[in-house]
């Protein structure tokens, strides 16, 4: 499999990571399905949610795949009064990624990004490598550093 933009960024920054490939289908691109496919706990596979905030515009939230984003906590953490999910049709244009393959690393622009604080309880977590069928395993601290993110209570 060829290197994704996310992997190139990690290598350029000399950040340790590994990746896992898996077979996917259109009906099973959610993080819980991915966790089953790569045989890990769903609370270690994190999904990247792209939202729009009334003050910040595009804002990224990275949360465990088996959790739901608490929009009130997310708005508070990001300095917005309210946030809503970005329509799927706008995802590629804004991030350079498609649904089910949206990595928090290497988006078209640097957006305000927030990682669920409980991620720090794990030595490593999984996030999309930027394509369907591939996950990056990385420490939460390294992920936070490479994306210029912040840890916050989001669930």
Beta-strand content = 25-35%
As laid out across the biggest beta sheet, the strand order is 4-2-3-5-8
Q: Which superfamily, in CATH terms, is the homologous superfamily? A: YbaK/aminoacyl-tRNA synthetase-associated domain
CATH architecture: Alpha-Beta Complex
| Helical fraction | 10-25%
How would you sum up the global shape? Answer: globular
Number of strands: 8
The arrangement of helices and strands along the chain is: HEHEEHEHEEEHE
Number of domains: 1
Low-pLDDT runs: none
CATH topology: YbaK protein
Structural class: alpha/beta
Biggest sheet overview: 5 strands, mixed
Compute the CA-based radius of gyration: 14 Å
Average pLDDT confidence is 96
* Helix count, DSSP H or I runs of 4 or more residues: 5
Task: Give the termini separation.
Answer: 34 Å
Q: What is the name of the CATH class?
A: Alpha Beta
How would you describe the overall organization of this protein?
The longest helix is centred in the N-terminal third of the chain and has 8 residues, at 5-12. The chain has helices at residues 5-12, 31-38, 71-78, 91-95, 140-147; strands at residues 18-21, 46-53, 57-64, 83-85, 113-116, 125-128, 134-138, 150-152. The chain has a five-stranded mixed sheet with strand order 4-2-3-5-8. Strands 1-7-6 form a three-stranded antiparallel sheet. The chain is globular and about 40 Å long. It is α/β, with parallel strands linked by helices. The termini are far apart. Strand 2 and strand 3 form a beta hairpin. It contains five helices and eight strands. It has a single domain, classed as Alpha-Beta Complex (YbaK protein).
């Amino acid at each position: 499999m060829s290197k994704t933009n996310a992997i190139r960024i990690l290598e350029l920054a000399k950040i340790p990571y590994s990746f896992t490939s898996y077979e996917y289908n259109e009906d099973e691109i959610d993080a819980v399905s991915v966790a089953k496919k790569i045989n890990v706990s769903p609370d270690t596979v994190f999904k990247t949610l792209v939202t729009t905030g009334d003050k910040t515009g595009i804002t990224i939230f990275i949360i465990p795949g088996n959790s739901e984003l608490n929009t009130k906590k997310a708005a508070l953490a990001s300095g917005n009064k309210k946030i809503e999910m970005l329509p799927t049709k706008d995802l590629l244009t804004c991030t350079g990624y498609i649904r089910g393959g949206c990595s928090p690393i290497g988006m078209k622009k640097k957006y305000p990004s927030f990682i669920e604080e409980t991620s720090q309880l794990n030595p490593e977590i999984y996030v999309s490598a930027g394509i369907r069928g591939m996950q990056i395993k990385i420490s939460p601290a390294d992920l936070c550093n490479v994306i210029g993110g912040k840890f916050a209570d989001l669930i």
